[in-house]
Amino acid sequence: MTQSVDTAFLASLGWSDFFASQIAPDEIDLVPLRIAEVHRARLTAISAAGPVRLPLAHKINTADFAVGDWVLADPRSHLLIRRLDRRTVLQRRTEGRHVQQLAAANVDTLFIVTSCNADFSPARLERYLALANQAGTNPVILLTKADTTDDAGTFEQQARGLQRDLEVVALNGRSADAAGMLTPWCGAGQTVALVGSSGVGKSTLVNTLAGLSQDADAAQQTGDIREHDAKGRHTTTARSLHAIAGGGWVIDTPGMRTLHVSDASDGIDTLFSEITDLAPLCKFRDCTHDHEPGCAVRAAVNAGTLDADRLARWRKLLDENVSNTPVQTGPRGNKISQKKKY
Ligand SMILES: Nc1nc2c(ncn2[C@@H]2O[C@H](COP(=O)(O)OP(=O)(O)OP(=O)(O)O)[C@@H](O)[C@H]2O)c(=O)[nH]1
Ligand SMILES: [Zn+2]
């Protein structure tokens, strides 16, 4: 790992000082690897020499690892020694479960994919944005199927209004130009992940970015879409890390399809910053922006500077976050409900 070739390869794989600084003096001979696949009883990783399967010690639970994680391993046997701290982590809580399920780690940019058709839903995009913000990743909205409508500009404009300074790209995921339009986020060492409903074109984009033919055997299987309801079949089953033809890496995470927002209050604040910024101007510090006099948020709605639908969606998402976030149990077994911020 001290050799310059390996150092250059590691940098192209997303390695940075953030990870290097975590290596203790007695770990200097270990080799850093990046996790590419997580299965129940198996982990695979990318090394300077190509993909490797990691032998696992007894105590290791693969559910503690995410695609994109950096780990240290023995240079000869590749026995996994430990995971390094993550820069970002995308996780989700499945209904009825208390533990968060890991979806992807060390993702720089989250491509939130929707189409220029009936799939486009501000409320769903806001859920993904809250999740991206919470994870510490930079969200970019990709509007696929721009080639099927004359109205891509309207979708773009609506998407831009969902969060301050949000980047939005309308494209045809099947065309070769798509990769070129996404180069600002896909350079060497950068990692992107894709989320979005079934049928919006995630696998198509992965294939385009990886430079794979849309119908090659190695390509991700893509499914037909039922146009009338804009819902597609679920065809993607494996989660993995793919090299992007021009540089970076793309993580495809089918596990994020059924998304519930939880533990995301900071992400929601960032998403709705136009509301968060007004709240301190309300007469009451704990204003719920519902019935109180002197409410700056409702005043903005009345003045037409804040969209009433947006306020309603903010309220709904906050409630959803609170109800999906498990309550903490106090010292005497009393339930302490999560404090609502506004
Ligand atoms: N015209 C057009 N068709 C597209 C575009 N992107 C994807 N498609 C088509 O839409 C269908 C669904 O695409 P997929 O890539 O399988 O969608 P997905 O999001 O991966 O779906 P799941 O694997 O079910 O999550 C396929 O028939 C694609 O060829 C696009 O930008 N324009
Ligand atoms: Zn108020």
UniProtKB/TrEMBL annotation:
Cofactor: Zn(2+)
Binding site for GTP: 144-147, 196-204
Domain named CP-type G: residues: 96-259
Family: Belongs to the TRAFAC class YlqF/YawG GTPase family. RsgA subfamily.
Phylogenetic classification of the source organism: Bacteria, Pseudomonadati, Pseudomonadota, Alphaproteobacteria, Hyphomicrobiales
Keywords: Cytoplasm, GTP-binding, Hydrolase, Metal-binding, Nucleotide-binding, Ribosome biogenesis, RNA-binding, rRNA-binding, Zinc
Cofactor binding note from Swiss-Prot or TrEMBL: Binds 1 zinc ion per subunit.
Protein location: Cytoplasm
Single GO MF descriptor: metal ion binding
Gene Ontology cellular component list: cytoplasm
Annotated CDD domains: YjeQ_EngC
Protein name, as recorded: Small ribosomal subunit biogenesis GTPase RsgA
Organism listed in the record: Pararhizobium polonicum
EC number(s) on file: 3.6.1.-
Highest taxon of source: Bacteria
InterPro entries in the record: G_CP_dom, P-loop_NTPase, Ribosome_biogen_GTPase_RsgA, RsgA_GTPase_dom
Residue intervals of the EngC GTPase domain: 105-257
PANTHER family: SMALL RIBOSOMAL SUBUNIT BIOGENESIS GTPASE RSGA
SUPFAM superfamilies per UniProt: P-loop containing nucleoside triphosphate hydrolases
Presence of the UniProt keyword Nucleotide-binding in the record: yes
Function: One of several proteins that assist in the late maturation steps of the functional core of the 30S ribosomal subunit. Helps release RbfA from mature subunits. May play a role in the assembly of ribosomal proteins into the subunit. Circularly permuted GTPase that catalyzes slow GTP hydrolysis, GTPase activity is stimulated by the 30S ribosomal subunit.
